[in-house]
Amino acid sequence: MAVRIHPTAEVADNASIGEGTSIWHQCQIRPGVKIGKNCILGKGVYVDADVSIGDNVKIQNYVSVFHGVTLEDGVFIGPHVCFTNDMRPRAINPDGSLKAATDWKISETRVRRGAALGANSTIRCGVNIGEWAMIGSGSVVTRDVPDYGLVFGNPARLRGFVCPCGAELIKKEVKGSVVIASCSECSQTIEIAKQTWEMIK
Length: 201
Fold this sequence. Notes:
- It is a single chain.
- This protein is mostly beta strands.
- It has one domain (4-90, 107-166): UDP N-Acetylglucosamine Acyltransferase, domain 1 (3 Solenoid).
- 2% of the residues lie in helices and 35% in strands.
C-alpha cells in the first residue's frame, strides 16, 4: 500500500515512512524520524527529530511526540496527549543567557506495544508505559506503568489491570508469586506478578 501524505503536511526528506501509513492535515515530521507500516497520524501531529514509531500506531489530532519518545507497535495516542522530554526545563541559564540545544539533558520515554493513552493525558518524561497498559483521559502520569496496568488521576495511580481487548481483568487465584486474572469479557487469562497486583490503590 502506498504512503498517503496530505498536501498540507510537512515531511522531512530523510524521514522514513512505512507503507500504508497516512499522514494527515498540517502534520510536521522532522528529520530522522522512523514511522512504521499502517500508521495513522491525525491532524496537527508533530513528530520531533529522530523519534521512532512502530507499526500500526494511531496518533490522534494535535499530539506532539518530542525527541526522546519511542512508540512501539500498536500504540494508541488519544487527542491532545502531552509528552515531555526535559525533567528540569528552563528558558535561560542562571546567568540569564538563553539556553541552547546543548544546555539540557534528555529524559527518554517509551510506550510499549499495545498501550493506549487517553485524551489530554500528560506523560512526564523518563517513564515507561507497559504493554497493553491503559491511561485514563486527563491523567498525569509521573511514574512507570506496568504491563496491562490501568491508571488514571492526577497523579495517575494504578487502579486495576486490563486485557488486550480493553476490558477489566478479574483476579481468579494466586499461585505463588503470580496472580491469575481473567478478562471480564473475552475470558482470556493473564498472569500478573502478585507484588505488582498489590500496588492497586
